[in-house]
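Private note to self, pasted from the team thread so I don't lose it. Backbone tokens:
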């Protein structure tokens, strides 16, 4: 009987540790990240503590700014991106992308997205922890963040 209790306690500890690890990694996503593509295209993505995000992609050849919304989570060493809204009228939503985490810290995130040949390197320009309300002013703050990120 004592063996079963000890085994049950060990299982509970392993599950609790896994849940804490997942929460710790998920909180690393919170903030504003900038990714520069090779062809002067830039993506600015703001992730709330609950995983919801708003992303602006600018520098496209047609001069448009694309706005994406969805949720991101970290699971089993991957960033899972569920895009639920895309300002491009011909884009299929919802859609899911997976990026294997190469490395991630408080200032940089390097991912290998499925279907991409190069690693995607993003840098954090702002650490937001004010919850879902931080997404309300993203459109107004986009230009300020764009200017801030170009100075880095």
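Design output:
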């Amino acid at each position: 009987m004592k063996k079963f209790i000890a085994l049950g306690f060990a299982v509970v500890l392993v599950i609790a540790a896994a849940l804490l690890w997942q929460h710790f990694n998920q909180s690393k996503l919170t903030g504003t990240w900038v990714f520069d593509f090779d062809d002067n295209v830039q993506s600015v993505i703001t992730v709330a503590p609950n995983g919801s995000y708003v992303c602006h992609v600018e520098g496209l050849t047609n001069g448009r700014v694309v706005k994406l919304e969805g949720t991101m989570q970290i699971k089993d060493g991957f960033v899972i991106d569920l895009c639920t809204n895309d300002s491009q009228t011909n884009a299929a939503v919802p859609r899911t992308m997976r990026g294997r985490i190469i490395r991630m810290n408080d200032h940089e995130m390097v991912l290998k997205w499925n279907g991409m040949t190069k690693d995607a390197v993003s840098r954090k320009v702002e650490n937001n922890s004010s919850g879902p309300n931080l997404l309300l002013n993203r459109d107004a703050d986009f230009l300020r963040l764009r200017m801030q990120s170009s100075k880095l």
